[in-house]
Amino acid sequence: MTLEQLTDHLSAQLSISKVQAHETVHALTRHITQALLAGDRVSLPGLGSLSVGVRKARSGRNPRTSEIIHIPERKVVKFSVSSQLSATLNSGAK
Questions:
Q1: Which helix (H) or strand (E) holds 38?
Q2: CA dihedral defined by 78, 47, 32, 8, rounded to 10 degrees?
Q3: Domains of the chain: which residue ranges?
Q4: Does the domain at residues 41-94 carry the CATH identifier 4.10.520.10?
Q5: Each residue's pLDDT expressed in tens, for the chain with a length of 94 residues
Q6: Cα dist. 5→10, 21, 47, 73 in Å?
Q7: Residue 6: other Cβ atoms inside 10 A
């Protein structure tokens, strides 16, 4: 699903303009981003939850030169699927 498809769907479902639907999606995205930056867990009932985790620093190898390189620690977003969505996906329902 693309941003355009999502805004078209929201516009039709909520009887709002496509511009308002687009602004709504961007506002939601900004708010979720701010919550994750603050270290909060974002729970979306029926879908799952987002949280920030840390991927530890490690050594890697450059595939072209075989040189060993250092890969620094970094923050990553983790997504945990809700049990409801998991059950729906695995039930074969469409």
A1: none
A2: 130
A3: 1-40, 41-94
A4: yes
A5: 999 999 999 999 999 999 999 999 999 999 999 999 999 999 999 999 999 999 999 999 999 999 999 999 999 999 999 999 999 999 875 5
A6: 9, 11, 19, 36
A7: 14
